[in-house]
Amino acid sequence: MKKRGTIVGFLAVALVAFFVLNWQPVAAAEKEVRLGVISPSSGNYADQGAAERRGITMAVEEINAKGGILGMKVRMIIEDTETDPAAAARKAKKLIERDKVHFMLGGISSSCAIAISEVAQRANVIYFNTNTNSDACTGKHAHRTNFRVGPSNHMLVFAIGPWLIKNIGKKWYFMTHDYSWGRSGTAVNRQILKKYGGTELGEALIPLGTRDFSSYLIKIRNLPTKPDVIMCTVGGVDLSAMLEQVHEFGMDKDYNFGFTLRDYPDVWAVGPEKNIGYFAVEWYHKLDAPGVKEFVARYKKRFPNASIPVPENCCYNGYIGARELLRAAQRAGTLETTPIIKALEGYTFSDNMKYNPTTIRSWDHQFIQDVFIGQAKKPEELKEDPTDFHKIIGYMKGEEVARTREENPVQLEPYR
User: Fold this and answer.
1) Contact by Cβ (8 Å): 326, 340
2) Domain locations in the chain as residue ranges
3) Among 307, 242, 308, 310, which Cα is nearest to 276's?
4) Which of 82, 182, 250, 292 makes an SS bond possible with 176, Cβ 3.0 to 4.6 Å?
5) pLDDT tens, position by position, 1-40
């Protein structure tokens, strides 16, 4: 009897302790919206991560200033992906299981985003990959809980590729970042060459973390046929290193370089002397579109000492992603996953700081939006504005360059 009384007493104490220890998180859940920001602050894409976090911060602060979501303030909980898929998956699991976040967004690296999206789908937590482009993110690895804010590689390449074929030439050599984004970009570029009767002269696979590009550049110099275009799907610190060495080798004067995507932080890091080529652009701070000037002014006021003095494409995607995710929760009137997904699917918004509205496609969760064609400005063209690195020479509407349902026959999981 004494043993039974001791056990009962122990269980009672344990039960009280459980409720005491768990009461605060439960109470907190009723008072705030927790937004998991999973974004690189180290690794190859640390600069892009910092830029997207500035955009996310702006969106959250603007929403909180208007009363928050459903009467609750939004709190950001930030984790570093380390630009590593295994670390990204681990951090995503921590955000969901320990921090009890309602949503997640971020990523930058497509491989990291794919890993995060798998964790999010299993937990039925909405995840916005804000700055990824691999077609696999809304293709092979599409999920019901996963949304992609930035354009896919198909959208980017079908904007810049035909322009290069028409204006520069049809003989291409590829430089490919050897992970999901790079391989996806080159695969779509090959589609462009085939469609327009072009010729591939070879490919260099660039491991993530490459800093010495001399062997790759020497190989291009020694090709028996000179490429019309060296088409690159390389990004982050690796791209900055490559641009430095292209300039040192004098190849910026002898060859035309094309880029599947130009992230502004990569060229800001190397400066106008090494800013070269033709490229797709997701967004630009000098666009003559409604809301752009006001957004730039708010950014400068909020981040007067930022490492990049103007908002750029990664900041833009972070801002739009966070804003639209939180707006959807407000429209749904709940923090539950399925009603918010339904509030997002097929939704169109016009205050997107682009020429045409953006639509969140219902069947693959790709944001369909304008994609711009850019050309690097020469240093002397930056005298009036030292931040104005790009010349926007054209654009394509999102629906003109996105994959069709026949090209991307994904089947999302059922709603839970």
Assistant:
1) no
2) 28-152+288-369, 154-285+372-400
3) 242
4) 182
5) 444 444 444 444 444 444 444 444 433 445 999 999 999 9
- H-type alpha helices, 303-355: 313-332, 337-344
The mean pLDDT value for 104-116 works out to: 95
* Per-residue pLDDT tens over the stretch 70-88: 999 999 999 999 999 999 9
3-state helix, strand, coil in the chain (%, to 5): 45, 20, 35
Single pTM value for the model: 0.92
> Which position has the token pair 């931040």?
387
Token code pair at residue 131: 């700055």
The Cα–Cα gap between 81 and 107 comes to: 7
Instruction: State residue 23's pLDDT score.
Output: 41
Fold of domain 28-152+288-369: Rossmann fold (3.40.50)
Identify the CATH homologous superfamily for domain 154-285+372-400. Response regulator (3.40.50.2300)
Tens-place pLDDT, residues 346-402: 999 999 999 999 999 999 999 999 999 999 999 999 989 999 999 999 999 999 999
Q: Which amino acid is at 141?
A: H
As given in the structure block, the two tokens for residue 61 are 């602060």
Q: How confident is the model at residue 53 (pLDDT cuts 50, 70, 90)?
A: very high
What b-and-e string marks burial along 66-82, b requiring 16 or more CB atoms within 10 Å of the CB? Answer: eebbeebebbbbbbbbb
Say if 28-152+288-369 and 154-285+372-400 have the same CATH topology: yes
Residue 78 pairs in a beta bridge with 37
> 3-class DSSP state for residue 50?
helix
360: three-class secondary structure by DSSP: strand
The number of CA neighbours under 13 Å toward the Cβ of 174 is 24
Q: For the sheet containing 278-281, what is the strand order?
A: 199-206, 171-177, 229-233, 257-259, 278-281, 371-376, 390-396
Task: Judge contact between 175 and 216, C-beta under 8 A.
Answer: yes
Backbone angles phi, psi at 363, to 5 degrees: -95, -15
**Hunting for tokens 């110099």 — which residue is that?**
221
Q: Which helix (H) or strand (E) holds 260?
A: none
Give the separation between CA 394 and CA 396, rounded to whole angstroms. Answer: 7
For residues 395 and 402, the answer to whether their CB atoms sit within 8 Å is: no
Helix (H) or strand (E) holding 71: none
